[in-house]
Design goal:
The chain is an all-alpha fold. It is built from seven helices and no strands.
Length: 202
């Protein structure tokens, strides 16, 4: 942040007018909110499986069938919640385009809805692949069967990978867009070979 601010401020000072000393100020409550949010989300993510493990017998904890049965029962509710979150996301983005907080909330709900519906889509895809690859070698069919029987683990992993990939693509597109805009602005602005300006502009 400090380095980018110095570069942009130096460019403005050199080409247009003196902006004086530019300060980079980050309020302390932003840092406190970020720290609290990170700790809170981490504690919540660890508390849910801990509470669940405390209410089950140790034998059931070692059984994958019990985990998969519970995950399969809740998968339908995840799909319903994903559809509701997607509709709410669309409504927030369309209705309040000028409100930054509500727009970001809509984008966040859209990402959450995609993550919630990915396990169900993965189950349908694996089922279709298992039907289409009935002639395939044993290792291929065994891999597909194992993935279907372990959706409580493979589902969240695929959802996390899909979200990480989508965010990486979004950030790359944003950077390329900013770079293209800046290059176009510089090409349209800096057309002369020599610029003359006074030393101290009022």
């Amino acid at each position: 942040g400090y380095l980018l601010l110095d570069i942009v401020g130096g460019t403005v000072n050199a080409l247009y007018y003196s902006t004086g000393e530019v300060f980079f100020f980050l309020p302390w409550h932003y840092l406190a909110a970020s720290f609290t949010l990170g700790i809170g989300v981490s504690a919540l993510a660890a508390a849910i499986p801990a509470i669940k493990a405390g209410h089950q017998q140790p034998v059931l904890q070692l059984s994958r069938s019990n985990e998969e049965t519970t995950a399969k029962k809740t998968r339908v509710w995840f799909v319903i919640g994903a559809l509701f979150a997607q509709l709410l996301s669309y409504w927030l983005i369309i209705t309040f385009p000028a409100n930054l907080w509500l727009t970001f909330s809509g984008v966040f709900l859209g990402l959450v809805s995609v993550a919630m519906i990915i396990p169900a889509l993965l189950e349908a895809l694996l089922f279709l692949l298992s039907k289409l690859t009935s002639w395939a070698p044993f290792l291929v069919r065994a891999a597909l069967l194992f993935a279907r029987q372990s959706l409580s683990r493979t589902g969240p992993a695929v959802a996390a990978l899909a979200l990480a990939l989508s965010i990486a693509i979004s950030v790359t597109l944003m950077i390329q867009s900013f770079r293209g805009t800046l290059i176009g602005w510089l090409e349209n602005t800096l057309k002369a070979d020599l610029y003359i300006t006074v030393a101290n502009q009022l």
